[in-house]
TrEMBL record:
<comment type="similarity">
    <text>Belongs to the azoreductase type 1 family.</text>
</comment>
<feature type="domain" description="Flavodoxin-like fold">
    <location>
        <begin position="1"/>
        <end position="198"/>
    </location>
</feature>
<comment type="function">
    <text>Also exhibits azoreductase activity. Catalyzes the reductive cleavage of the azo bond in aromatic azo compounds to the corresponding amines.</text>
</comment>
<keyword id="KW-0285">Flavoprotein</keyword>
<dbReference type="InterPro" id="IPR003680">
    <property type="entry name" value="Flavodoxin_fold"/>
</dbReference>
<feature type="binding site">
    <location>
        <begin position="139"/>
        <end position="142"/>
    </location>
    <ligand>
        <name>FMN</name>
    </ligand>
</feature>
<feature type="binding site">
    <location>
        <begin position="15"/>
        <end position="17"/>
    </location>
    <ligand>
        <name>FMN</name>
    </ligand>
</feature>
<feature type="binding site">
    <location>
        <position position="9"/>
    </location>
    <ligand>
        <name>FMN</name>
    </ligand>
</feature>
<dbReference type="InterPro" id="IPR023048">
    <property type="entry name" value="NADH:quinone_OxRdtase_FMN_depd"/>
</dbReference>
<dbReference type="InterPro" id="IPR050104">
    <property type="entry name" value="FMN-dep_NADH:Q_OxRdtase_AzoR1"/>
</dbReference>
<comment type="subunit">
    <text>Homodimer.</text>
</comment>
<keyword id="KW-0520">NAD</keyword>
<comment type="function">
    <text>Quinone reductase that provides resistance to thiol-specific stress caused by electrophilic quinones.</text>
</comment>
<keyword id="KW-0560">Oxidoreductase</keyword>
<dbReference type="InterPro" id="IPR029039">
    <property type="entry name" value="Flavoprotein-like_sf"/>
</dbReference>
<keyword id="KW-0288">FMN</keyword>
<protein>
    <recommendedName>
        <fullName>FMN dependent NADH:quinone oxidoreductase</fullName>
        <ecNumber>1.6.5.-</ecNumber>
        <ecNumber>1.7.1.17</ecNumber>
    </recommendedName>
</protein>
């Protein structure tokens, strides 16, 4: 059993998504004591943005720059992490209605034609092996679920769920803590609710 744990919040010890993603990994690790965990902190170790040189290399152009070669090798490692993992835990706060730029950079490195998806006769097909589970820890300051008037502004969960399905990761469980900016009582209640959901996650 292999667990891939990804954090993308820039708030360090003040981050609710980091707290809850760590609790999720601990819950899964307790259920699978022999599991190994690969941890990627995308804020502490940010991934460089893609450039034209990256795209040229993806199309088969020769790579003569050592720094670019190292970066491409690192990017391949992110795909290897994803392919090897049985369980993926991602902490994703909402920043300006969407995902953090740090997480978007990771997405750009793992959504790669020929490795994690391909174009077939019926359109794009995800290439991730079947049987993987993902637990997504979603945190946001406002409320974007149910009949909230802000629901239409949610480009965080909608985007991430869509892109994961695009590469074949469809067994996704969302653990959500929202309303975190609506006062301490609302924040505490949201965290307690999320912790209860984590405690009851399937193993």
């Amino acid at each position: 059993m292999k667990i891939l744990h990804i954090d993308s919040s820039i708030l360090g010890n003040h981050s609710v998504s980091r707290q809850l993603s760590a609790e999720t990994v601990a819950q899964q690790k307790a259920a699978h004591p022999d599991a190994t965990v690969t941890y990627r902190d995308l804020a502490a170790n940010p991934i460089p943005y893609l450039t034209g040189e990256h795209m040229a290399a993806f199309q088969g152009a020769p790579v003569t720059d050592a720094a670019l070669a190292d970066d491409l090798e690192t990017g391949n490692g992110y795909i290897d992490d994803l392919l090897a993992a049985d369980i993926i835990v991602i902490g994703v706060p909402m920043y300006n209605l969407s995902v953090p730029a740090q997480l978007k950079s990771w997405i750009d490195r793992v959504v790669v034609a020929g490795r994690t998806f391909q174009y077939g006769a019926a359109g794009p097909e995800g290439l991730l092996p079947k049987g993987k589970k993902a637990f997504i820890i979603s945190t946001r300051g406002g409320v974007y679920t149910g009949d909230s008037p802000a629901a239409a502004l949610d480009y965080q969960e909608k985007y991430l769920g869509t892109v994961l399905a695009f590469i074949g990761l469809t067994d996704v469980t969302w653990i959500r803590a929202e309303g975190l900016a609506l006062g301490q009582d609302a924040k505490d209640a949201a965290i307690v609710q999320a912790q209860g959901e984590i405690a009851g996650l399937p193993v």
